[in-house]
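## retry 2 of 3
previous attempt timed out at serialization; input unchanged, resubmitting
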Amino acid sequence: MSTTAGISTDRLHAWEQHLRATYLDTGILPNALTLVYRRGEIVHQHVQGHADVEAGRALRQDDIFRIYSMTKPITSLAFMMLVEDGKVALNDPVSSVIPGWAALGVWAGGELGGFTTTPPGRPMRMMDLLRHTAGLSYIIQQGGKVDAAYRSLGIGSQTDLDGFIAALADVPLEFSPGESWHYSAATDVLGYLVGKISGLPFEDFVRERILGPLGMTDTDFFVPEGKTGRFMPCYVLTPQGRVVFDAPPTSPYLAPPHFVSGGGGLVSTAADYLRLCRMLLRGGELDGARIVGPKTLELMTRNHLPGGADMAGMARTPIAVSESSGAGVGFGLGFAVTLDPARALRAGNAGDYSWGGAAGTYFWIDPVEDMAVIFMTQLILSPDRIRDDLRTFVYSALTDSPTRPQTRA
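## retry succeeded, writing output
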């Protein structure tokens, strides 16, 4: 058995065999890229499948993926940089920057055009946006009249950022801030706030303060001319099988977006996202570029749900938690945070943090193991089981985990 940096490469190759047999050969996934980084080195990187199934083009390591909600940690970092700059505080009311939201009520009945509301128990605060306890909903949620209004008004799909904020002023909250955890458009609101507070367009702030300093040269809100050959179709699972969801020739990602989404707007590569993960593993700095301070990052990766609750105990709808039931998993300021691997029924350590994207992408960082793992594919409605499978194979590959008791011969 070969080992590198305390990890069995044989076991990681077994993951690739499992991935192919279970998900690629069965026609579920079009492609997959797995990258494992431990103790300062890439110990495993492997690609399988076709970037473009119809054209027969094999996936490459430098291909560009839609990372959707893996944008959220980057937007959250941008906001926390402004907290470090003293321009905003986590306890500030959101209405201090968006005055039109001061009178937002909580849904009590009715539907678009005839809502009835009650006053919230307390104001929505900045921390609520970061941890998804703001009372907002999402166009992708299917829970009731509020998210139906989001779809009817095109909130987050047919507006620019200013129109997005204005439209939300006319829709009630799902619940009073702090009462529940509800995966929502809150991170898109954070993107708007970053622009307003910094005085720079949100996308320019991200490029100048995060992407540029980290050398994430293939990460942006659109794919520029000259890189389109590395951009692939995105697929979706339907009852009839896997079909193309977004084809490159007509993809909205080929031009700067009308709605710059802090919640899901970025494209990236595995190599670029690894630079972000390495910065996080190093306490907020990489190659001399300091993005945030180590104490700020420590704060972001602790559980911030009220009373130390997990997501399962506070979630409003099943779609709220994409990678697990939410048991034993809390939420910090932009990341899911493992509280108890035993309750979560998945391998890991208390304190590892993660998030994924709608097209099946996923990452997690385990500071205890000095490890980051990135998984990339392009399939809407990817099976959630893939993420738990990946965790099982990666953690079972560790040969000298610092959490394992040491014995002497």
